Structure formats: structure tokens, C-alpha cells
């Protein structure tokens, strides 16, 4: 009896999956969101034309005013992005197919030498499996 039930289930399952396979063509789409709280804001928006081209943007602004906005295009010519930011340490540059546009003023910084100090290390016996064995 068990064998009959098992074979019936297998035959029934196979019968459901022998239909035509439907291939769906890409469809145009659009999505987006925008979130704002008391410390920051974030957003993302994207559209696709159904033929392989995508255009979008995303970005954020934090509580201190640091902001980044990325606008991008992806299509038959590849992925291209433009980054607008005021983040510290950025500069106008164009690595690969990305354009970084910095609004951070250029600052000449002087790097001070780092003076190292010795640190004492003392070995401590492990008690009942507790402790790492070293104390700094």
C-alpha cells in the first residue's frame, strides 16, 4: 500500500511539471524609498526600461552634514556613476568610469611622526580554563 501511495505522489508531481515553460520578457520597473529620522536621511530611486538600461540614484546625509549622492546609469555601455560628496579626505577624481566630485576644501595636512612606547606583557596562569593567559 505504501509503495502504491508513493508512486502515485511521484506520478502526480511529474505531471504538474511537464507543461510549457513560460519565459517572461524583462518589464519596465521603478522603485524608490526615502527615510528620514532625527539623525540622518537616506534615499534610493531606480528605473529600468525593460531593455537592459537602468538609471538610478542613492544617497545619505548624516547628523553632522556629511552627504553623498550617487547618480548611476547601467546599460549596453556598462556601469557609470557620478558621486557628489563633501566627505573629508575626498578629492575630485575620475577612477574607472566613476566621477567623484568633492565639495571638501583641500587642506594640506602635516603628518606628525608616531612615537612608540614599550608595553609591558605579564604572563598569568590560567585558572579553571578562565583567562587568556596574557595581561597588557
Automatic annotation (TrEMBL):
One of its GO terms (cellular component) is chitin-based extracellular matrix. Residues 1-15 form the signal peptide. It comes from Larinioides sclopetarius. Coiled coil: none annotated. It comes from the Eukaryota. The lineage of its organism: Eukaryota, Metazoa, Ecdysozoa, Arthropoda, Chelicerata. Pfam families: Chitin_bind_4. Keywords: Cuticle, Signal. This is Cuticle protein 16.8. GO terms for molecular function: structural constituent of chitin-based larval cuticle.
Amino acid at each position: 500500500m505504501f509503495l502504491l501511495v508513493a508512486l502515485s505522489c511521484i506520478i502526480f508531481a511529474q505531471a504538474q511539471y511537464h507543461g510549457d515553460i513560460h519565459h517572461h520578457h524583462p518589464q519596465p520597473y521603478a522603485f524608490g524609498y526615502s527615510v528620514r529620522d532625527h539623525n540622518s536621511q537616506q534615499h534610493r530611486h531606480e528605473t529600468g526600461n525593460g531593455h537592459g538600461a537602468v538609471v538610478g540614484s542613492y544617497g545619505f546625509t548624516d547628523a553632522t552634514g556629511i552627504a553623498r549622492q550617487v547618480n548611476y546609469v547601467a546599460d549596453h555601455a556598462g556601469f557609470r556613476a557620478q558621486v557628489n560628496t563633501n566627505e573629508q579626505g575626498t578629492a575630485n577624481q575620475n577612477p574607472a568610469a566613476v566621477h567623484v566630485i568633492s565639495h571638501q576644501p583641500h587642506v594640506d595636512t602635516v603628518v606628525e611622526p608616531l612615537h612608540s612606547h614599550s608595553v609591558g606583557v605579564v604572563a598569568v596562569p590560567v585558572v579553571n580554563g578562565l583567562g587568556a593567559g596574557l595581561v597588557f
